[in-house]
Design brief:
The chain has about 90 residues and is an alpha+beta fold. The chain has one domain. It is about 40% helix and about 20% strand. It has three helices and four strands, in the order E-E-E-H-H-E-H. The protein is elongated and about 60 Å long. The model has no long low-confidence stretch (mean pLDDT about 80). Zinc ion binds next to helix 3.
Length: about 90
């Protein structure tokens, strides 16, 4: 099967065959420390209240999400800048 026209996953702009594109694979895995059962009694209630604010699909995406696709050069630069900022905040 011949490859169709590529579209940037972020800006949705068609990427010309003469342009460089960037393939990405992203895994977002939620992690949390296990709640201490001897902790403050109101903490689980706070957690439940937070959980009820999400629908099930959104909640699942909060735990594990995988995305892949291609980015144009401009969106790749944006993503790199975004990640760079995040790393500096650490
Ligand atoms: Zn783009």
């Amino acid at each position: 099967m011949a490859p169709g026209p590529r579209t940037c996953a972020h800006c949705e702009r068609p990427i010309a065959p003469t342009e460089t594109w960037y393939r990405f694979a992203l895994v977002l895995q939620g992690e949390a420390e296990v709640l201490d059962p001897t902790g403050a009694a109101d903490e689980p209630e706070d957690l439940l209240a937070q959980l009820e604010a999400f629908d099930p699909a959104e909640l699942e995406a909060q735990v594990h999400e995988e995305q892949s696709g291609v980015l144009c050069a401009a969106c790749r630069a944006e993503l790199r800048a975004f990640l760079g900022l995040r790393f500096r905040v650490q």
